[in-house]
Amino acid sequence: MLAELSAIWNKRPLIISGPCSAETPEQVLKTASDLAATGKIDLLRAGIWKPRTKPGLFEGIGEPGLKWLAEAKKQTGLPLTVEVATAQHVEAALKYGIDILWIGARTTVNPFSVQEIADALRGTNIPVLVKNPINPDLDLWGGAIERMQGAGLADIGMIHRGFSSYGNTEYRNAPMWHLPIEMQRRYPGMLMLCDPSHICGNRYLLQSVAQKSIDLNFGGLMIESHIDPDHAWSDAQQQITPQQLEKMLDILIWRVRSDPADATELALLRERIDQVDDELLSLLARRMKIADRIGAYKKENNFTILQTERWNEILERAGKKGEELNLSREFLVQYFDAVHMESIQHQNNVMNESGKKLNDI
Ligand code: PEP
Ligand code: MN
């Protein structure tokens, strides 16, 4: 089924939408019929059991919500997807004819729960979408996929919903785009969807995150929608109406995926990137050799490794130069932080190696 659904992508990406949580029969049925009326939705989602970070919040309507979803499918023809976190959820979802299951971020982190779901699904061929774990651990994400495969399931996809971090950032969950890209490399051909709603945690960033994922060759989107987002029982700030979703989809620029005519050009450009990366690595190695010499000098003269004024001077200089070269300040700070840490490591090694002199390096 995922293969058929993702074949849709050849013409346009797969779009999953529906409320964060099923709340009432009216809310589920009206959201579903408004979504179906757009003609742009492939799958209806709703949370039935909600894993909430803190107790005391709405924890999902439970089984009655499945009945409403089954009715929504009858009325609109939209296939259904819900989140499952336990074997009982799986059993109930299958009983009500849910078409595709997904594993939430808070479940993917727990191999016991993932295994329980995998065991409950053994012998079925129901498609499963595995969200990334809340922490940026690709082995854990891959482990969940492999547990599903181990239970004989073949129809598996991934959903990128961003990663938790401490402190306020622009996003509710940082996208760290290189991680889902790495997962596409590790699991070639596996459907990768993006969930901009949980990445953003608000409405105003949704459009740009959705566009970014399309630009990065993702196979589709899962976006939360609600007939009255401000009064949603969960995730009120990030949900949009089905009509707003339709506008959003109209504005998105859909890219063509890997056109063979472009393939040679692309391969050539990649070749050039590899070349430049090799040069960058040699330059970095040269830089570290110099750091080694500085370490030896500081050791002989009994200087501290970290000298704050010097570090500020480097950042200041790189910031100015980077601006001229069209490199963002944010990137430069991250890059120099990483280079600086490696430099300190090198100097530290030299300073703590007995007997190494400046002229030995
Ligand atoms: C959800 O999709 O409503 C949900 C709980 O998402 P996540 O597991 O990504 O937090
Ligand atoms: Mn949600």
Question: How is this fold's topology laid out?
Answer:
Blueprint: H1 2-7, E1 14-18, H2 25-38, E2 43-45, H3 63-76, E3 80-83, H4 87-95, E4 100-103, H5 105-108, H6 111-121, E5 128-131, H7 138-150, E6 156-160, H8 178-186, E7 191-194, H9 196-200, H10 206-215, E8 220-224, H11 242-251, H12 260-301, H13 308-324, H14 329-352
Parallel strand pairs: 1-2, 1-8, 2-3, 3-4, 4-5, 5-6, 6-7, 7-8
The structure holds phosphoenolpyruvate and manganese (II) ion (MN).
Structural summary, described in words:
- With 361 residues, the chain is α/β, with parallel strands linked by helices.
- It folds into two domains: 3-251, TIM Barrel, CATH 3.20.20; 277-360, Chorismate mutase (Chorismate Mutase Domain, subunit A), CATH 1.20.59.
- The protein is built from 14 helices and eight strands.
- The protein has helices spanning 2-7, 25-38, 63-76, 87-95, 105-108, 111-121, 138-150, 178-186, 196-200, 206-215, 242-251, 260-301, 308-324, 329-352, and strands at residues 14-18, 43-45, 80-83, 100-103, 128-131, 156-160, 191-194, 220-224.
- An eight-stranded parallel barrel has the order 1-2-3-4-5-6-7-8, surrounded by five helices.
- α8 (178-186) links the parallel β6 and β7.
- α13 (308-324) packs antiparallel against α14.
- The longest helix has 42 residues, at 260-301.
- The protein is elongated.
- The relative contact order is 0.10.
- The protein binds phosphoenolpyruvate and manganese (II) ion.
- Manganese (II) ion is lined by residues 20, 224, 234-235.
